Task: structure prediction
Amino acid sequence: MNPLFDLTGQVALVTGASRGLGQTFARALARSGADLILTARRRESLADFAVEITAMGRRAVSLDLDVRDEASIQRMAAEAQQAFGNIDILVNNAGCNVRKPALDVTWDDWNLILDTNLRGTFFVAQAIARGMIDRGYGRIINIGSVTSVFGYAGLAPYGASRGGVRQLTMSLADDWGRHGVTVNCLAPGWFKTAQNQVLYENQEWVEYLTDRIPVKRPGRPDDLEGVVVFLASESSRYITGQTLLIDGGISVGATRATVPPKEAK
Result:
């Protein structure tokens, strides 16, 4: 394995690892040699996945974590430290969404999304960074979204939370860079996940979306594997405070300036 991407002997903590992209990130890190701390609101939901990780020859520990609860974050950080000692990599993945027109968003909707995606991201990073700073080394990967830089109707609080993650990433990078800790934001574009699966059942919408993506397809989970390993590894040592969009190019704007020629029949 290329030493620039080899994570052997390192410990990675992935939040929100019971399903979806959280598991994609964890698998990629395990394949590159990292041992895993997996978290979810209910650790029982991680049982099968932990078995999968150990079958790859890696150590895996499952912990309860509710990122909306400060005591839960502190307890998880202490248990993670006790289980493995040093934590080298944090993937701040836990998140949620509520899709509604802006006029229908409730006070509780807003609090749920912002408390999970933004406040939770900060306080998990803070709790884990303490040990990284003491050691003088760490890789923090906050999971953002194409909505970190783009606005979409029906996603007002979600976009606000993900835009906040981007700004938070830059601030923490400046705060902790002198201590050997890099902080970056991995921002997926349109990927089919458990949260948005219903959208992908609408073929008309999928065709509309695909037309706006320069590479002409939505993302697949394996499109994210290389980039999470890159940001977690030695190869990214001089990169911090950045938002890396893995979006097939939809963030270029994807609005036609000319009428496409008709295909010959």
Q: What stands out?
A: The CA atoms of residues 100 and 154 lie 5 Å apart. The chain has seven helices and seven strands. The helical segments are 20-31, 47-55, 70-84, 107-135, 156-176, 203-212, 225-232. The chain has one domain: 3-192+222-244.
